[in-house]
Predict the 3D structure of the following.
Amino acid sequence: MAPIAAARSVGAAIFVSLALAYFICDRRNNNNKKKNKSRKGLIDAIGNTPLIRINSLSDATGCEILGKCEFLNPGGSVKDRVAVQIIREALESGLLRPGGIVTEGSAGSTAISIATVAPAFGCRTHVVIPDDAAIEKSQILEALGATVERVRPVSITHKDHFVNIARRRASEANEFLLKNRGLPLNGKDTEKVNSDECDGYNYSSLFPDDCQGGYFADQFENLANFRAHYEGTGPEIWEQTNGSLDAFVAAAGTGGTVAGVSRFLQEKNPNIKCFLIDPPGSGLFNKVTRGVMYTKEEAEGRRLKNPFDTITEGIGINRITKNFGMAKLDGAFRGADREAVEMARFLLKNDGLFLGSSSAMNCIGAVRVAQAIGPGHTIVTILCDSGMRHLSKFYNAEYLSQLGLTPEAAGLEFLGIK
């Protein structure tokens, strides 16, 4: 009986081994099928970006510092997610029609993303951009077929702030459509859109004859921005880390990224700490840490000059947007321009990561969090875009020299790490 029992045991072991091997092979094949499955057009290619270990920062801090590679989206930035969400929701609601013009006031990245994805929805793009933004952003927008207006930077309370002009352009596009159809403007000289009126001037030369009206994307106040990250970026981070992360940190411009991700992660696990990293000239650090953003004298609209004092583009603000208002934050850190410049060069040299200014600031935030909570933790941040659209300023040696920001660090000593 012993030999028979032994034979049976061997046979069972062989069967189990074969079954396990079949299961592993089948699982691998299914995974490969998922990976190799083609996506339906540009829109499906947005999101599901890699989460990578930033080796140099992880090794230096004793934490696992992970970066979400949003620069690998088709439009080159995290704002691709926002552009898709805004346009899709506007089309579904009927506020935007195919053939319509999406208008936006943007320092660059959101505008580029809208100009990238709008044609996939059958729409056009009109962008108003401050003239102190890196010139390559305007060049990219024009190459993508967008109409671009460069205007002087002024306070958001001024009627000619780039965001307010973009809002008016949407109204004017709707007025243009109605006039072309020979329809009355509700007995008035102006037509409202998104609760705003055009200013009465004739801007018909900005719009093609077949224009189907306009829609103001309103990335600062449109909660589609928040939803893009609450429904997309946040869940992706949770899945990619298997829920094993201790902290998330990012800067805020519109506030959609830090709000959507922080709210999702803290709803999944309240023990995950979420932080803001804020550049010079922004009041959000004060708001998060002290509850007061600025004194009355510092409020936007009372300043004589542009309130921002940073070379990092697309982040930092002196008001609470609807998107930022959705954030759930445990604290905030301040970052400096020199730190961002040094960090960008450090990551390029040590990790091969060629990152934009906001991405560099986010990495400053990740190190600050690591220093605050100590080694052995997992920290996630956002790598918003690459350095390709920051060549004329953030990566321009002459420009940095004029500001006294020529990089000098050999390592991370600018953050107190030797």
The CA atoms of residues 56 and 350 lie 6 Å apart. DSSP finds 13 helices and twelve strands in the chain. The longest strand covers residues 124-130.
